[in-house]
Amino acid sequence: MALPKRIIKETERLVADPAPGITAAPHEDNLRYFDVTIQGPDGSPFSSGVFHLELFLPEEYPMAPPKVRFLTKIYHPNIDKLGRICLDILKDKWSPALQIRTVLLSIQALLSAPNPDDPLATDVAKHYKEDEKDAQRVSREWTEKYASVKRICVIGAGAGGLSALKAIVEAPQHKAGEWRVTAFEARNEVGGIWLPAPPTDDPPLTPLYDSLTTNLPHPVMAFTCFPFPPSTAMYPSASVVEKYLTSYAEHFGLMEHIQLNTAVTNVARNPTNTGWTVTLSTGDDSNYDLVIVANGHYRVPRYPNTPGLDLWLNAHKAKHSAWYRHPLDLGAKVLVVGDGPSARDISAEMSTSSTTKTLVRSVPNSPNTEIANIKTRGRITSYCADLSKVIFEDGSTEEGIDFVILATGYELSFPFLSPEILKPGLAPPIPPLPRDTYNSTYNVFPLAKHIFPLQSRYPPSSLAFMCLLMRVVPFPLMEAQARVIVHAFVNPDAINDTEEAVDIITHYEDLRHEIGDIDADAMSEKISKMWHVCRGDKQFSYRDELHRFAERDGLGMVVVPDWIKEAYERKEVLRELWVDLVSKGEADDWVRGVGEKGEHEWVDVLRRMIQYAENREKRLAGKEENYIVGDIAKL
């Protein structure tokens, strides 16, 4: 049945010109049913709350009044436990001349002036009559407990911060006005590490070098809800990823919740220990119920504690790779320390520089090799005082070194968290778990699910660390962590301290057994280095476990598909193949138009790339298989 024009006009006005502190939105499937929120009036015991109501227009409307009730619990003499309202215009004083807007304004006024002489909740009315001041105290407590707006602070607007923002703004509590969220980003745009910057700061704002591409295929690393555009290079450049993150923020309406050019300088428990006081670089501070730490872990360079290195650094004969952007004239013999993706990329670039005659790589536990102008050696044990010679772990030396690039990783750093919240240094051996949370610069410990500080000084669900895990597919893992954070914030009891402690101790014992018999200090340091590193397919079981934990949020279960595991397992071979295809000018043929019909097209290309790589390996091993090179993109 079509809606009467009267209801249509009233609805249009409610939406276009809402009364102050009141929202009313009709349901799409039933335009007579409205979701209503009313902000508690200033000066009343209900001022800190946002109350949710349901309003229904019966078929007899406007000859009969709307049916309205509170969904949010409220301590008020004229509103009972079922949310029913004692208001004369909803009963015998109703007139067809009155409107929905009038009803909602009258309910808002009732919050300003409770009337215990015409009660619906007799016990509350009795309390108001006998001791109004104490009754108002209880009303404020109920408002704080059931109706107060929860404020959420997200630190950082890189991939982690953006995924947290999306999970929050899509939560029913945010849509209903129960949550308010702000992400604070120190830089002038979103994107985090993927946002380029010259290496002029100390340390640089990002370690992004000019030639950087992803080290994972983008169908694997993309957010599950937001694929890269069709025809995107399988291993896109940093600028493409930056644009992707900006598009993600714009597509999901996140920008309005982000405050750029604003750093968080301090996070501390407020004086009443009921939340967090967050201080900003602007000098402002505010209270928050939940703080999500997503500031990334690629800002503070890690320097090896190798004898003699400080002398080389002070003499400007060595520098961390955080400052590297492109090949420079660093002399005829350059030493690159490290074996991560950055170390490999920088070594490859520097080895082809016109001024680099010899490129030496220091890779721990590596055999000595020499291919073309690249030498590979083991771990360095000493930098000599002559500023040109180093000694390796096997006793061999390399002389005539002109410059050293230290691609030795980054420290976990949270300068806005005081030692009372996050103690510097290694955590003591367990069991039992320590009372405090520690940052060894390799790990934050102990954290439930690698996210929540497991201690008793504040609710674990009120502080969350994102993106600490290493050797993972980051973006979809961040999605899962964000979902868990939201679920735990809504359901703090979902974090079972005992079960989480058992999981932590079990993981600790497994690592200790794997490491073997070494002294206690070395054991603690070794475990801290391994703690957040996911090896093999553990990241996928971890991601699945996160989704299981959050499954009750109504979005259903999410499981990592097999094709992602398959592509990740072959990621090195796939990237090597892609680099080869790019060098031959064939890469565009593989991805042209792919993705226009959906994700399955990318899955198909990845599997064909794996097949191609396997065939190539067989050919190199002398097991030739027939196929036409020119038609390889059609396999």
From TrEMBL:
Its EC number is 2.3.2.23. The active site is at C86 (glycyl thioester intermediate). SMART domains: UBCc. GO terms for molecular function: ATP binding; flavin adenine dinucleotide binding; N,N-dimethylaniline monooxygenase activity; NADP binding; ubiquitin conjugating enzyme activity. Pfam families: FMO-like (PF00743), UQ_con (PF00179). The keyword Methyltransferase does not apply. Transmembrane segments: none annotated. Gene3D superfamilies: FAD/NAD(P)-binding domain, Ubiquitin Conjugating Enzyme. Keywords: ATP-binding, FAD, Flavoprotein, NADP, Nucleotide-binding, Oxidoreductase, Transferase, Ubl conjugation pathway. Residues 2-148 form the UBC core domain. The keyword Glycosyltransferase does not apply. Belongs to the FMO family. This is E2 ubiquitin-conjugating enzyme.
